[in-house]
Specification:
- The chain is α+β, with helices and mostly antiparallel strands.
- Helix content is 15%, strand content 28%.
- The protein is built from 4 helices and 10 strands.
- A 6-stranded antiparallel sheet has the order 6-5-7-8-9-10. Strands 2-1-4-3 form a 4-stranded antiparallel sheet, with no helix packed on it.
- The chain is globular, with a radius of gyration of 27 Å.
């Protein structure tokens, strides 16, 4: 919290300074005077509830840090417009910017194949192969940082001799046969214009 008091909290909770004249978030020198308490009694009940003080500090429950997942490396091979590309990131949010047709959505689609299913475009595996690739195979690999440690995941298309699509998947270097194993390590949610008419209809519909 931006306005937390410096020093230890009370009974394991964060403490927030209170100024009875100015409200929560302003530290005041000295103790609480009778004049202060008089002002406090004159306040509406809703405002008084915000300034319950313990040694002129308002007590706020401590918030535990939520566990986070972060994609720290993405490597793609013969996928869409990319012969080979690698992106290294950290836990901060990532914004992709570029001209139309530069390959931004292709990167998002590559990430979506790390989850079960047919990706955000819901295509056949062969459709994701780069035009001009020799056998129509492609691969996506990623390093995922999680509270429990780093996990490596990879998936791709392997062309069978009979021409059928075959999806191969690995987690931490070991091959897995069920796409359910991907969901046990990584959950993805995406929203595309095709999923909601709000993005496609005219201003009157909005």
């Amino acid at each position: 919290m931006q306005n937390q008091a410096q020093g230890a909290g009370v009974d394991g909770v964060d403490t927030l300074p209170v100024d009875f004249e100015r409200g929560i978030g302003h530290e005041r020198r000295g103790g609480v005077t009778q004049r202060d308490m008089g002002r406090e009694r004159d306040r509406p009940v809703q405002q008084q509830a915000l300034t319950v003080a313990t040694n002129h500090y308002c007590v706020a429950p401590a918030r535990a840090a939520a566990p986070r997942l972060a994609l720290s490396r993405l490597t793609i091979t013969d996928f869409r417009c990319y012969t080979r590309a690698r992106i290294d990131t950290d836990a901060r949010p990532v914004v992709l910017a570029g001209a139309n047709g530069a390959g931004k959505t292709n990167l998002l689609e590559a990430i979506s194949f790390l989850a079960p299913g047919r990706g955000l475009r819901r295509i056949q595996l062969a459709e994701a192969a780069r035009r001009g690739s020799s056998e129509g195979n492609w691969a996506v690999a990623a390093s995922i940082q999680a509270p429990s440690g780093e996990t490596t995941m990879s998936t791709g298309r392997l062309n069978d001799p009979d021409g059928r699509d075959r999806r191969v998947m690995q987690i931490d270097g070991a091959e897995v046969r069920s796409q359910t194993a991907l969901a046990e390590r990584l959950w993805l949610v995406w929203l595309t214009p095709q999923m909601d008419r709000l993005f496609l209809d005219g201003p009157s519909a909005r």
